Amino acid sequence: MLTQNLGYPRIGSQRELKKICENYWADKTGYKNVLQVGKNIRRENWNLQKEAGIDVIPSNDFSFYDHVLDHSLTFGAIPRRYNEVILKKGNEELDLYFAMARGYQKEGLDVVAMEMTKWFDTNYHYIVPEFSKDQVFKLFSTKIIDEFYEAKQLGITTKPVLIGPVSYLLLGKEKEAGFEKIDLIKNLLPVYIDILSRLDALDAEYVQFDEPFLTLDLTEKDKKAYEYAYKEIRKAFPRLKIVLATYFEGLGNNLTLTTSLPVNILHIDLVRAEDQLTDVLAALKDDTILSLGLIDGRNIWKNDFEKSVSIINQAVEKRGLDKVWIAPSCSLIHSPVDLDNETNEKNLSAEIKQWLAYAKQKIAELSTLKKLITNESPASTLQKLEENKVAISNRKISKIIHNPAVKARVLALKEEDSERLSPFSSRKIKQQELNLPIYATTTIGSFPQTAEVRSWRAKLKNGTFTVEEYDHLIAQETEKAVKWQEEIDLDVLVHGEFERNDMVEYFGEQLDGFAFSKNGWVQSYGSRCVKPPIIFGDVSRPEPMTVKWTAYAQSLTSKYMKGMLTGPVTILQWSFVRNDQPRSETCTQIALAIRDEVCDLENAGIKIIQIDEPAIREGLPLRKAEWQNYLNWAVKAFKISASGVKDGTQIHTHMCYSEFNDIIQNIADMDADVITIETSRSQMELLDAFANFKYPNEIGPGVYDIHSPRVPKREEMIRLLKKAKTVIPSEQLWVNPDCGLKTRGWDETKKALIEMVEAAKEMRKTEKVPAADLQVN
Q: Which positions fall inside the Cobalamin-independent methionine synthase MetE C-terminal/archaeal domain (predicted)?
């Protein structure tokens, strides 16, 4: 029985990747230094897995920004607008790569970035491949081959990891009409054959193809593409050992298709879909090895060794020891790197820490599980088993997990607790008293968090600053932000969130039932890392969380100050969630805590309150048959959080990087007065869903992409707003960026927002009504 890993975190144990990339983008370091840091991280990852005793170690799981973008570059799927970037003298391959991810605005060029969206139901974002009808694929980057060779020079023969050809195409987007992306399979496959031939020449033994779409609903054309692709690969490389990796869900009605494919090893996710094991064991061909995904690659709870051993024994009894591998459920890029870095009990108590495992610890768990089955090093292995039993038992009986008062409040909820007092048509009349213009301008909430602002928070935590000193500085920064927004004539202001570290972590730190790591960083996209809170117990709100700074900001201006909150579904989705009760129950607990905050903001005089839910689409189960159950409790949780206020209080929500067509009714059911969405990268395409549905409430389509450093021109925003106006009535439209501005610099932020405000004013001039009547009616 062998152990294999599907992928390891690429950010580095101290977030070295983030730091070097951001320095490179800021022209503070050179190209060769970036490459060296990448090489150091890969070497460290490979050696760690080798020393832990992992038999089959991955390569090409490292990426400087995104592994899907890596593949687009490898396959030469480079949109034509980047041709000038390629030709620009002095540019390296990495410059083109980053231009595709982030846009390019220098040396006379102004090129927008590629679209970005969520990787299945995770909080990881990938860069969406762009395909045309006449798409040509060719080997452009040799990264896959180079990294395999690099590991081999270190004495480690790795298993190169590729996104499978069908999944790669299905992850992409047709950029013109007249074809389906899956039709490109015959164009794409020769590049895979080319790559495999080069790996075969270097004596690669295993190659992993990630095909997560095998756990989703497939069309007949998709299924035929799978049959064609793997038949051709097997025909070209009869001796190459192919690992087919599926994850995030069970195979379901794709079981027959998957088990018929000519591969050597099939990996299945037994964390998200434990009940599929019996069916897979029955359907698998005799000569196929089954890889059991037993260790949770997406959460931080310690593996239950006794349970895993039982599952392994079930498979071994059916298949034999040599036909069973064990592995994490999916790539460990969704896990923090190393629990050993958590040395401060103020952040993470010893009691909670004993229940956790990060990526490094998960690799060790994998090795221990193998030893438990093969009876290797029996004394030390049995000791680890006993320690594991104690940790699992301690968590079940811990007194810090359960709060009877919270459970009772959930049980006492009534149907009216999730409904506003009046329907939107009546609320809208009441909200006219806000006296806002058409094309009202606002931002999504956060303003740039400079190194200086972050240093204040660090000094408060390490005791260098007193609370009074810290509050004084935050107050000054907030006052400057409010004054600047007034100067550029924004209609609805925000306080800037300078006191906040992360849109989920900030709230979790003030809620009971949450714990926090110091170094539990996980990549969200590119250099953006998040540190998800750990929901270990019942959730409640001991005291107000945002009222102090929102009310202070409101006191500085006669304009409306928007209260900024993160919604219950997003707090749930972007946390490491307890796995000992249904997620729906945990979400309802969070919703009640946010409801209390919404009511307190209203009582403090805040008339406009935004409850961000960017993760509501992300939480959808991968199979459509299971969507409605999730949407029922997710939408209800949002409505519980928002429904305690009067009709005149305007509730906003924000969603980004999601497709809405298939859940538009559910978004309408959320009944927010205003929804702001990301639309600039898609050139307002996402608005079609709202237009076709005749969405009745108000909408703020993002007019510029905040994940790119480029500053859009006013004319560009006006063009997008005119496009929006063709499908959404102008009296329903707001004007705002795609997302929060926390990660941007002040210079680009100010320039972009000034252009945005002026674009809105230009749009108001186009309305055929007197200027004095340019109010919402």
A: 440-761
Residue 509 labelled as part of a binding site: no
- The three-state secondary structure class of 755 is helix
What pLDDT, on the 0 to 100 scale, is given for residue 586? Answer: 98
Q: Is 617 marked as binding a ligand?
A: no
- Please state, in angstroms and rounded to a whole number, the distance separating the CA atoms of residues 363 and 168: 27
Task: With H, G, I as helix, E, B as strand and everything else as coil, classify residue 4.
Answer: strand
pLDDT digits (tens, 9 = 90+) for 159-179: 999 999 999 999 999 999 999
Catalytic residue among 71, 334, 495, 707: 707
The pLDDT tens digits of the residues spanning 75-130 come to: 999 999 999 888 887 778 999 999 999 999 888 889 999 999 889 999 899 999 99
Q: Is the pTM of this model over 0.85?
A: yes
Residue 739: its pLDDT value, please? 85
Please provide the distance, in angstroms rounded to a whole number, between the alpha carbons at the two ends of the chain: 70
C-alpha–C-alpha distance, residues 734 and 721, integer Å = 9
- Altogether, the residues listed in the chain come to a count of 777
pLDDT band at 767 (very low <50, low <70, confident <90, very high): confident
User: 266 in the Ramachandran plot: left (φ > 0), alpha (ψ -120 to 50) or beta?
Assistant: beta
Instruction: Indicate if the pLDDT at residue 268 is higher than 50.
Output: yes
Task: For residues 712 and 752, give the distance between their C-alpha atoms in angstroms, rounded to a whole number.
Answer: 6
- pLDDT recorded at residue 87: 83
Residue type, 110: D
Among 268, 283, 353, 345, CA closest to 318: 283
17 is in an annotated binding site: yes
446 assigned ligand-binding residue: yes
Q: Is 289 annotated as a binding residue?
A: no
Beta 104-106 vs 109-111: how paired, if at all?
Answer: antiparallel
- For residue range 311-350, what is the model confidence (pLDDT) as tens digits? 999 999 999 999 999 999 999 999 999 999 998 777 789 9
Beta pairing partners, 608: 562, 650
Residue-by-residue DSSP string for 187-253? HHHHHHHHHHHHHHHTT--EEEEE-GGGGS---HHHHHHHHHHHHHHHHH-TTSEEEEE--SS--GG
CA nearest to 222, candidates 252, 159, 190, 180:
180
Question: What's the confidence (pLDDT) of residue 455?
Answer: 94
Residue 26 token pair: 């800021």
For residue 682, the model assigns a pLDDT of 63
**Is there a catalytic annotation at residue 707?**
yes
Q: Which of 336, 382, 324, 396 is nearest to 363 (CA)?
A: 336
CB atoms within 10 A of CB 86: 13
Burial class (CB within 10 angstroms; exposed 0-12, middle 13-18, buried 19+) of 558: exposed
Report whether 118 belongs to an annotated binding site.
Answer: yes
Residue 674: which H helix or E strand, with range? Answer: strand 674-677
DSSP track, 405-433: HHHHHHHT--GGGGS-SS-HHHHHHHHGG
Ligand-binding annotation for 174, yes or no, is no
DSSP bridge partners of 534: 515, 576
Write down the residue that tokens 């506003």 correspond to. Answer: 420
Report angle CA 261, 262, 263 to the nearest 5 degrees: 100
Task: Name which of 243, 348, 339 is nearest 4 in CA terms.
Answer: 243
C-alpha 675/C-alpha 663 separation (Å) is 14
Give the pLDDT confidence score for residue 375 in this predicted structure: 87
- Give pLDDT, residue 684: 63
pLDDT at 694: 85
